[in-house]
Fold this protein.
Amino acid sequence: MGSGKGGTVSGPTDPGNKRRRRTRARNRRLDSSGTLDVIPSSYRRLDLADLLECVAGFASSRPGKVHLQRAIPATDLESARVLLDETEEIRERMKTNNWNPGFEGLSDIPSILPESGSGTLDPQMLAAVWQVIDRSRRLRSQLQAVECPRLTRRAEFLVDVPGLRERLAKSVDASGEILDQASEKLNRLRSESARLDAEIRQWFVENSEKKQWKKALQGNVVTPRHGRLCWAIRAECRNLVRGVLRGESSSGQTLFIEPEPVVRLGDRSQRSRAAETHEVQRILADLTREVRLRRELILQLWQHLVELDAAQARARFADELGCVSPELTEGRRINLVGARHPLLLWRQRKSERGSTFDLESARAAVVPMDLDMNPGRYQVVVTGPNTGGKTVVLKTVGLLALMAACGIPIPAAEGCSIPVFDAVLADIGDEQSLQQDLSTFSAHVTVVASILRRSTSRSLVLLDELGSGTDPLEGAPLAEAVLDVLYERGTLTLVTTHLGRLKEYAYRRRKCENASMEFDPEKLAPTFRIVVGLPGRSNALVIAERIGMPSEVVERARRASRDQDAVDHEVVDAMQRAQKDLERRSREAEGHRKRALHHSQEIARQEQEAEKARSALEYELERVEELKISTSVAHIRHALDQLGELPGAKGDALSDAYVALAKALESTDLAMRRLDTARSLGKGDAVFIPRFQKVCEVRKINKEKQRLVVLINGVATDISFAEISWVLPPPGFEIWWKCDEGSVDPEELGR
């Protein structure tokens, strides 16, 4: 794995610098109007080809690799969503270990079946066609068995071609050999040829040791010559062996003679093989006609297999780098959370074969980026120090947008959203050319002019160091004019600059916003963190001093610049202090919010505990009251039983007193609650019977007679409403009945 210019990295199947030079030369060419073809040029500046090369390394087939290398980002929302959804659905299938699509060894069918093709297909070509048809059939069965909308939809296009598939399976094997069962005649001819060959070999075995020929044989060697088996005969013994001379050695000392008895068998064998060859050609011609009749369908099946292989490669790449699928939108808001440049992550990948890629260490080595662009503001001017990461921000945003449009998940955290653009246009880097007589400034102007001609309200434009390369007094107004055109067009634009005038421009435009790359004044180093809403300073003098510029030079420059941009620095410093104060206040507010939330949760918990205690106390009081009353009634009943039948008025008085007591008890609050509870009961409900100290199931209820039948220890028992309790025992009390669905939860009963 090597690194290229500008921080790019090559993929796992890097074809080398020669191919890359050809690609760059092609991307720099002009279109028919004489202007720069800015779209492929932008792709190159954003390292899209290098990224696709990395992804292509995960494809299983050569056509799948080529498809990814030539991938073009989608420009409409639905197409991009289909690509991304298929990638994610395959990722889910891969996790189940139930994904065996069989893309390995997939051939290039378009080259086998060109539109104007003629001639007979050879067995290897036919085997490649059979492979496409058979794999499509098997993959269709796999995809139909999963609950994945996009893959299921794809399966509908993987139609079977049963007649042709079975004919090819019968005629050719996977290695490209014509099978015996391709036709009855071929089977018969091959059987005959095999039988004749066996007879010939058997003749040599039986006659090689015969005395009449042994003297003439050169080591008892049977040698093929011109498709015929021959003996190696000493030249001086030529007359001892009758047969046909098929050749001789370079020295002339050895002659290769086909014995006369073998000649007749050999002639028959050759005739049989000639007939076999003719039959094979006939079979190939028939199969070729059948294949060409279904050419369009076969190409469609092949295309679906290639696209699914590419989707699988995208899924594997995403798993390798821990990528997520962003939400694709039609708006203008870019929201990136924890985003990293994918090629910077890829560079951390261990190149040694057999080593394990440590994703976490790779993430730790690449600074994440958060960028949330206000949907109401579609221009962002990024300022900040050199080497602070401004260019990386542009490249990361642009490349992630292209990745999402190609159906490739992005290396970021969950919750990201990216619009689908009709074009991603970038002017990043130095495009000066000695051959075309272009200076740095001229090259930038050429690219920017092409961007202005191509951009729309659905485009993403990335401009690095706009207005640089010339006198700032002229470059700044030109940069403003460019931004004005893009602003009026409604184009989503990110621009980096060191020009103070562009910072002011962002303040003057309602839908334009400043942003800056943060600089740590204590460490005198950039943090690579982008801060939206705040302009930055270049800190050129600080950086120059840090990397070795003589202090007297830096001090002279500092004195010269104090008066020149003191106001600008004061404003920026004030805004930076305000931003830091705002962040501090936000952190403090967040701390207060968390503490308040914790306090409210604690109060709620205490209130819940208090309610539980109150309910428990209420239950205990009710239970004690009921126990007292029940005990008193029981004592009275016992006393009456002990007294027996008293004569006269005394017995009547006791009976009347007992009845009066019972009626009085029925009018108490407790008795009324018990009655209300009893009347609300239904079959299957649970009720507590204090007399039995059990929770029982209601089987039958008679509200008129105020009686009910409950199940106690499996026995139906008739009791009165007066015997039940209006409360249930607390959780943990033993339950003595079962519902049809299973045991009753005491806690459920308690609620």
The first helix runs from residue 17 to 27.
